[in-house]
Amino acid sequence: MLEKALAARPTDAGLIVALSRLYAHNGDPARAEALLNDRLSASPKEAPIRTALAQLYLEEKRYDTAIAEYSRLIAERPGDALVLNNLAWLYQQKGDLAKARELAERAIAAAPSLPEIEDTLGWVLLAQGDADKAVAYLSAASLSAPNNPDIRYHLAVALNRIGRTVDAQSVLERLLGSGAAFSDKAEAEKLLEHLKQG
Fold it and tell me: Cα–Cα distance between 118 and 137 in angstroms, integer?
């Protein structure tokens, strides 16, 4: 249906993004990438298409390519909090914590109460060794998004780092007891086991 709709309206950015996501979800990221790049070759400043391409690269763990795409977006939209946040996360994955922090702080200045941005900044601060500040941001993020398992895991790690092991254990027990799926589940289970052993 999407392919037929796009054939009728070949420049519709919403349809292009939706179809690319469908391709990627169905295990064909190369086809998704080609669709997005074809549109960008005709209209290089189409932000929704470039955003979808950057997100595709991020999901595919092609971090350098994702950084390049998000950097292009930031050059055009320097105050876009979510783009800044994703770029900060990418730089953290690459180990450039100074750049990650600078971008995360810009993101939080642009959108001070979005939990995903508070989470990114908190996680970056924790990686830099500023655990007390990290706990403040991660606690706020957890209160705003109590069902986000990644944020709750990050909070537990930060609480443990500042010596609040009982609180960390409580957060982990509730998180793992919920049955939620998240990328750091194995690490969360190890941390909980470690805390239980005292």
Answer: 5
Task: Report the distance separating Cα 192 and Cα 152, nearest Å.
Answer: 13
Mean pLDDT of 57-85: 94
**pLDDT band for position 9 (50/70/90)?**
confident
What is the number of structural domains in the chain? Answer: 1
As a whole number of angstroms, the longest Cα–Cα distance in the chain is 64
Question: Does 161 reside within a domain?
Answer: yes
Q: What are the residue ranges of helices labelled H in 128-198?
A: 131-144, 149-161, 165-177, 185-197
CB 151 within 8 A of CB 145: yes
Within a domain: 70: no
- Closest C-alpha among 93, 142, 77 to residue 116: 142
* Those residues with Cβ within 8 angstroms of residue 138's Cβ, 6 or more apart along the chain or in another chain: 118, 119, 122, 123, 126, 151, 154, 155, 158
Query: How many Å apart are CA 29 and CA 22, to the nearest integer?
Result: 9
- Give me the domain span that covers residue 118: 112-198
Greater pLDDT, 120 or 4: 120
CATH assignment at residue 133:
1.25.40.10
Mean pLDDT, rounded, for 126-131: 97
Is 85 part of any domain?
no
